[in-house]
Amino acid sequence: LHQKRIGGMSMNDAAADQKSPTTNYHLHPINTPTDILQCEFEKDGFICLSSLIDKEGASHIRAGAEQSLQDCWTILHANGHTKFPHEYRTLVATNDDDKNGGPGTAKEYALGRGVKHGFKEIVMRHYGRYEMTYKCDQQNLISSIDDCCCSPYLANVLDSIFHNEKYYMCSMSIVMASAGAAEQQWHQDGPHLDIARHQPCHCLNVFIPLMDVTLCHGPTELRPGTHYYTRNLASMMLAARAKKTLRDPVLPLLHAGDALIFDYRVLHRGRANLSDEDRPILVMTFAKSWFSDVLNFPKRSMFDVQRSEA
Questions:
Q1: Are 158 and 206 spatial neighbours (Cβ–Cβ below 8 Å)?
Q2: Strand-pair partners of 5
Q3: Which residue of 76, 162, 164, 208 lies most exposed, with the fewest beta carbons within 10 A?
């Protein structure tokens, strides 16, 4: 989502401080009692589970995702949406260069940043960081949730978090942070539905890394407890700092097949990918049956042919 300004400051400014993130967090084994997970999720806004998908399944999904991303560049170019059929092209950088990659860089990205410049199949969330739905619902990427995930256990966890209300999987995607992808700003994935008082979670993400993630790969960083603050971020963050209740950021370093489950409203960001390999994550978004997310992808398709003006 685009950065919001709240009370005269950006979301990133409100969330920022000088504290270094910690890699200390609970990585819960499968079959941890769901009441323990629910309590931790409601307190922190996220939980981490070990080995939700096996290594072989993660490797299979990764291979399919990498091929699908390459297919996207070909299709986008063939239909007139991009200037070239790959992620970026290298330019001779000057002080005035600002070719999507930021001032002074030597990359011109095929896609523009954000939903405005994206497609329902792929959006560049930040420079070098893509969310792709293309082929995520097809057999060649992931045979089924039942085959690849411990779905009965995951269902029990979600039942607990959603307090046994009906829910559904509203989207499945791949988030790919390409080698050299820039650090994201702090953000939430969706708004509070009641700004007067805190409500239980209505939508969440399940992030499953498809490779072992180190600090160099740019893990997902979170601000624990900020799902309570984002309904009135500036004032509530300032109050938490004054009361010394604001908690240190957390950087879970997960292995392929582990899972990070977090509330749509918690502040998080992807760190810069400083490695020489792309970092793929399988994302499953679940929501209560009455909720629909219409903000994170546009309606237009990369298969729509771009007509040339006469």
A1: no
A2: 10
A3: 164
pTM of the model: 0.86
pLDDT tens track for 81-111: 999 999 999 887 665 544 555 555 578 999 9
Indicate the burial class of 208 (C-beta count within 10 angstroms; 0-12, 13-18, 19 or more).
Answer: buried
Q: Are 223 and 265 in contact (CB under 8 A)?
A: no
- Pairing label, strands 167-177, 279-288: antiparallel
Q: Using the 8-state DSSP alphabet, how is residue 197 labeled?
A: S
pLDDT digits 0-9 by tens, 250-260 = 999 999 999 99
Q: What is the C-alpha to C-alpha distance for residues 145 and 286, in angstroms, rounded to an integer?
A: 13
Tokens for 260? Answer: 């990070």
DSSP state of 252: -
Determine the 3-state secondary structure of 5 from DSSP: strand
Residue 304 is given by DSSP the state S
Which residue, chain included where needed, has tokens 């979670």?
A: 201
Rounded Cα distance, 261 and 12, in Å? 22
Q: Taking a C-beta distance cutoff of 8 angstroms, is the pair 258, 50 a contact?
A: yes
Instruction: List Cβ neighbours of 243 (8 Å cut-off, separation of 6 or more).
Output: none
Structure tokens at 228: 């309570």
The three-point CA angle 87-89-95 to 5° equals 125
- Here the tokens at position 199 are 């409500």
